[in-house]
Amino acid sequence: METGYVVSRYTFNSIIANNFLAVELVITLLQNYEANYPEILKICYIINAPKLFALAYAVVKKFINEYTQSKIKIYKQESTKWRTLLLEHVSPDNLPKHYGGTMVDPDGDPKCPSKVRPGKTVPKELYKKNLTDEVLVNRDYVTTTIKKGKQLTLDFFISDPGSLLQWDFRTEDHDIRFGVTYTDENGNVHNVITPSRTSANLVDVTGTITCKAPATYTVIFDNSYSRFRSKTLHYYVVVVEHLNKLDIESSPEARTNESEANVVDRVVVH
């Protein structure tokens, strides 16, 4: 398995609010890696971190598990320390000269902006709040408000093994706790996705799981931890039947023998 190393550069104003957002961004990225690409991310180095970033991290790290914490290494503006550590994991010819390696862009730029994209100001027309109405119209989102201390649960009875449960949601201004469980024939409840707080106010949260049957799957949007804020939620949750159940007509040229069809079905669905 290959291990990739990515050096990202962000510019944050030295105010606590922005540093909290920076920490939340890093944690969200790591959680997405762990949830969708386990063991791909080996370590995350945060370099040239301002003091307020470290302060913000100390406050929010209690909300993340120890495994994630072990992958985060924060270094202040002391290049003599982090440059040596980076070279222990990255070969010099794969590390920009600006960070202690030997790699430069064709024009000699030591920061290698052609490979390490610097952050830029997001145009206002691309602000999420300016895109929300258009996106919501193009898909059958349901909009609701989850009051403080309350939660919303959506139940789906699955009768066909291999059906897919898909979700896509976002919130306005604040995060929400999200999870998925299923109840089997004997009434036992199993966690599929352990409920945890997601930054759905920053990025859309999407996912798909293959369902067991017969079972009742429950999608949970939980705001019970919030004592003061209600949350506006836009969500789209749907069950897609197993491909064998879909009424799809194929031309004679597209038909294959049964064994080939079964192989394709296993590859696509499972």
Short key terms for the protein model shown above:
single chain; 270 residues; alpha+beta; Phosphatidylinositol Transfer Protein Sec14p; Jelly Rolls; 2 domains; four-stranded antiparallel sheet; 10 strands; elongated; disordered C terminus
Provide an overview of this structure.
The structure is a single chain. The protein has 270 residues and is an alpha+beta fold. It folds into 2 domains: 16-99, Phosphatidylinositol Transfer Protein Sec14p (3-Layer(aba) Sandwich); 128-245, GOLD domain (Jelly Rolls), CATH 2.60.120. Helix content is 26%, strand content 26%. The chain contains 6 helices and 10 strands; from the N terminus they run αβααβααββββββββα. The strands form 3 sheets. A 4-stranded antiparallel sheet has the order 3-10-5-8, with no helix packed on it. The chain has a 4-stranded antiparallel sheet with strand order 4-9-6-7, with no helix packed on it. Strands 1-2 form a two-stranded parallel sheet. The chain starts with 15 loop residues before the first helix and ends with a helix. Mean pLDDT is 76; it is low at 1-17 and 246-270. Pfam families: CRAL_TRIO. InterPro entries: CRAL-TRIO_dom, CRAL-TRIO_dom_sf, GOLD_dom, GOLD_dom_sf, SEC14/CRAL-TRIO_domain.
> Which sequence of strands runs across the widest sheet?
3-10-5-8
Main beta sheet strand tally, sense and closure: 4 strands, antiparallel
Output the CATH homologous superfamily of the largest domain.
GOLD domain
Q: What is the domain total for the residues?
A: 2
Counted beta strands? 10
Residue runs with pLDDT of under 50 for 5 or more positions: 1-17, 246-270
Overall radius of gyration? 23 Å
| H-E string | HEHHEHHEEEEEEEEH
Structural class: alpha+beta
InterPro entries: CRAL-TRIO_dom, CRAL-TRIO_dom_sf, GOLD_dom, GOLD_dom_sf, SEC14/CRAL-TRIO_domain
Protein name: CRAL-TRIO domain containing protein
Domain CRAL-TRIO: 1-107
Domain GOLD: 128-239
